[in-house]
Structure formats: structure tokens, C-alpha cells
Write a structure and sequence with these properties.
The chain has an 11-stranded mixed sheet, with helices on both faces. With 472 residues, the protein is of the alpha/beta class. The chain has a domain of 68 residues.
Length: 472
């Protein structure tokens, strides 16, 4: 029996029925990683000893009747920007190589409290800056169907690991689409919860007002199961809120559900193949009883520009702490300033340095009002536009990405082309909304993703509608 093709739900059922053990399940995934990941490079660290210890402890709890919850013993992978006490965490950067996390991130503590088994750290673009996982200091991750292509980014390692059956699920982080875009490229489900639904304590920050941790899974049901574990208010993150429970109520009937198609989104340079697959998904929604409504969503084009002003500004502030003094690698210079410059120059990659410089420029005297303050004002308009459109519809439907997975190296010399990969996803982060990417077919053997966007804190509704489409 192949133990590595499980979903979270099927693994939990198999454990409950006594068909397997957590040790057997964990061993199967560790062997799969050792075999397949040589070519894929989805992982940058495997917790082999600790994973087996956690699995054995889960089996002992099961035998004693003291399970921590329904997911006790189910393995999971985590993105390399989440702190795991005593384990190395690098955020894909040389500057943090060898740094051991002093404590668990809140989401890691919640996974442990649920009894889930941590398999290892997945590869990512350095400090989550990228749309392809080519900007990792430890080398690119490959697409699970085509080794010449990217898996998307920045959570490309997590997406690849789930799609290649190296784990049943993984956690990623999403600042402008970094869960949803790689999920679309790799043909899995990726969910960005509403801002504030999941604690960011213990996440190495990229842009604090945009970042959100979320699940990457094989099914919408699995996404809901994992989201319910990691969500909730946290005293260590004052942006978290007590929102409605993320319950997943399966349905195959969307009668009365209003799905909005933003007119502005359909002219954003998507390929013919992506357009065809997403329009087929629209027809499937109609067949389930949904009402399709064309809507106007002002500031769609401005959202990308706003994101690429606000994000670098927050990056510049957040990454100022990585200076060779307190964390990671240090390169000595002749004085303090030259030590800072040498450490950051040697430890930070090109894309990271580019965004730090852009942010420092936009925040500098003489440009703050023209760029940062103006972007904050337009962000308010974007939020109002979404609030207005959600008075007309229940969810919005767009492609997740304008194309399928592109070739490795195809866009690394053109940062603007890479940034345009986020055109359908960044507005969600700017407005703090929940959104999910669900597979909706292939184009020439490569997956296409459909994105559903909901109003703030309406995460359960987004999951239900996505689940109905998935089960069509």
C-alpha cells in the first residue's frame, strides 16, 4: 500500500481505523523525500530524528487513548520562514545560515498541540521575495511535473512538496500571492486567510501589514481542517482577531450564490489557455446553480502599483535587523558602518537588496509623501472598492495567475515581468481579504488555478464555495 498519496483527511481516517501508524506514515514520507527530492529540491532541511520521535509519541498516545485531536500523527511540512525551536531557520537566505530558532512560532505550537508531525523545512524565495523560488540562496526548486520549470513562489517548496507527494500538506506564507500562485502552478489548493485570522508571531516578517500564513493542501477539505488548527487570536500578535470558526460545510448546490467576475481582471494579459480553463470553471459554477454577475472593481490595476510601493517600504524596515550584529553571518569591516554594509552585501541576494533599496528610496525625505503616503491613500480606496463590490456578490472569481508555470531563468532578468505574475493576487493582500486557489484543469500538461476571493472574515464561505466546485 502506498502511504504517500494521502490527504490530511484520508491519513487521519487511516490512523483512526488502525490501517497504519504514524511511524509507518512518517517513515514513508521521509523515504519519499530522500528519493524524489534530490531532483526537486523542495526541502532545505528534514527533521528526520525529531519527526520519528513525534510519530512514535503520537502512536503511544493513540494506544493510551489520549489523542490530542483528529489530526494527531498526521505529517506536515513547513516553509523555511517559520520558527521551530532548536531547528535552523534561514528564510532562504545566506545571512541566516546556521541560525537556530529560540522558540516555536505560534502556528508551530498549534500544530504540536494538535499532535501533527513536522517533517522539515521547505525551500522559498529569499525572505519570501519572488514568484518562482529561484531566488533562494540554496538553489531553485523544480516543478513536480517538469524539472525545467518553476513551481511558483515564494512558497514554491511547499507547493512542490505537496504536489509531489512528499507530504500530505504544508504551511506557506502569502504576502502578495505567495501561497496561491505556486498552488496554481503545481495543481494544489492554496488558501490565504483573512488578515488577522492566523498569528504571525514567529514568522520571519517580509511586509507586516500584508503577510499571512496559510495552508497548502490537496483538497479544500484538508485546507479547512488545517486552517481550523492554526487560526485564532494570539496575545503575541496584536493584529489577530477572534473571527467566526472556519467550519467546512460540504455542499454541491450553489443556488443563490452570487459570483462576481471583475471586468477589469479579464484584460490583464492572461494566456488563452488560462482564460479557457477559468471560463470552463465559471460554467461549472453555473451548473451548480450559482448566479454569475459581471462587476466593476475599480483600482485593480492600481493594486499592483500600491503593493510594489508598500511592500518594499515594509521590507526595508523589517530587514534592517539583519545587519551582522544580532543574527546570522557577519563580515567584518574597518568600522561599524562598513561591517553593516559588508554583512548585508554578502548575506542578502540580488532581489532582496533590490527591494530594500526601493523601500528605502520610497521612505526617504522628499519621496515619502509622493510614494508611501500616496500608496496608503490608494490602499484605502482599494479596500472601499472591495467593500462596495461585496454588497453585490458573495465572492469574486478570477484566474490565480495569468500563465502556467514558466521556464527556469525565463523571467529572472526582467523583474517587472516577474512582478506581473502577482497581478490577480496582490489586491487581496492589500485589502486583507481571504482567497483560495483551486485547480481548474491543465494547459499542455501544466496546471491552471482559479481564485475565489471573499469579504473580510468570510473565510468559511470561501471554503464552502471552493469545496462545491472541487466536488462538482
Amino acid at each position: 500500500m502506498d502511504l504517500t498519496n494521502h490527504t490530511i483527511a484520508s491519513a487521519a481516517r487511516a490512523l483512526a481505523a488502525g490501517e497504519t501508524t504514524s511511524v509507518a506514515l512518517t517513515d514513508a514520507y521521509l523515504k519519499q523525500i530522500a528519493g524524489r527530492d534530490v531532483a526537486l529540491h523542495a526541502f532545505v532541511g528534514v527533521f528526520e530524528t525529531h519527526a520519528r520521535e513525534q510519530a512514535a509519541a503520537s502512536d503511544a498516545r493513540r494506544a493510551a487513548g489520549t489523542l490530542l485531536g483528529p489530526l494527531d500523527g498526521v505529517p506536515i511540512a513547513i516553509k523555511d520562514n517559520l520558527l521551530v525551536a532548536g531547528e535552523e531557520v534561514t528564510a532562504g537566505s545566506k545571512i541566516l545560515k546556521g541560525y537556530l530558532a529560540p522558540e516555536d512560532a505560534t502556528v508551530i505550537r498549534k500544530l504540536r498541540d494538535a499532535g501533527m508531525v513536522l517533517l522539515g523545512r521547505t525551500n522559498m524565495d529569499e525572505f519570501a521575495m519572488g514568484s518562482s523560488t529561484e531566488h533562494s540562496a540554496y538553489g531553485p526548486t523544480k516543478h513536480p511535473r517538469d524539472l525545467d520549470r518553476v513551481p511558483g513562489g515564494s512558497s514554491g517548496g511547499s507547493a512542490c512538496a505537496v504536489a509531489a507527494d512528499l507530504c500530505p500538506a504544508a504551511l506557506g506564507s502569502d504576502t502578495g500571492g505567495s501561497i496561491r500562485q505556486p498552488a496554481a502552478f503545481c495543481g494544489i489548493v492554496g488558501f490565504k486567510p483573512s488578515y488577522g485570522r492566523v498569528s504571525r508571531s514567529g514568522l520571519i516578517a517580509m511586509a507586516s501589514s500584508l503577510d499571512q500564513i496559510g495552508p497548502m493542501t490537496k483538497t479544500v477539505e484538508d485546507t479547512a481542517l488545517l486552517a481550523s488548527v492554526i487560526a485564532g487570536k494570539d496575545d503575541r500578535d496584536q493584529t489577530t482577531v477572534d473571527g467566526p470558526a472556519m467550519m467546512f460545510t460540504p455542499t454541491k448546490d450553489l443556488t443563490g450564490v452570487r459570483i462576481g467576475l471583475p471586468r477589469e481582471a479579464w484584460g490583464a494579459g492572461m494566456t488563452d489557455g488560462v482564460r479557457a480553463r477559468v471560463l470552463e470553471a465559471v460554467e461549472a459554477m453555473k451548473a451548480l446553480g450559482a448566479q454569475i454577475v459581471e462587476v466593476d472593481l475599480p483600482y485593480v490595476n492600481e493594486a499592483l502599483a500600491v503593493y510594489y510601493v508598500l511592500m518594499p517600504c515594509e521590507v526595508s524596515a523589517n530587514l534592517s535587523r539583519f545587519d551582522g550584529m544580532r543574527y546570522g553571518a557577519r563580515v567584518l569591516g574597518s568600522d561599524l558602518a562598513s561591517t553593516y554594509a559588508a554583512s548585508r552585501g554578502a548575506g542578502l541576494g540580488l532581489e532582496t537588496r533590490r527591494r530594500v533599496l526601493l523601500g528605502a528610496y520610497a521612505l526617504s525625505k522628499g519621496y515619502y509623501d509622493a510614494y508611501y503616503r500616496q500608496a496608503r491613500k490608494v490602499r484605502t480606496l482599494i479596500r472601499r472598492a472591495y467593500a462596495e463590490v461585496f454588497s453585490q456578490v458573495d465572492v469574486l472569481l478570477t484566474p490565480t495567475a495569468p500563465s502556467t508555470a514558466f521556464k527556469i531563468g525565463e523571467k529572472t532578468q526582467d523583474p517587472l515581468a516577474m512582478y506581473l505574475e502577482d497581478v490577480f493576487t496582490v489586491g487581496v493582500n492589500v485589502a486583507g481579504l481571504p482567497a483560495i486557489s483551486v485547480p481548474c484543469g491543465d494547459v499542455e500538461g501544466l496546471p491552471v488555478g482559479m481564485q475565489l476571493i471573499g469579504k473580510a472574515m468570510d473565510d468559511a464561505r470561501v471554503l464552502q464555495i471552493a469545496g462545491a466546485y472541487e466536488a462538482r
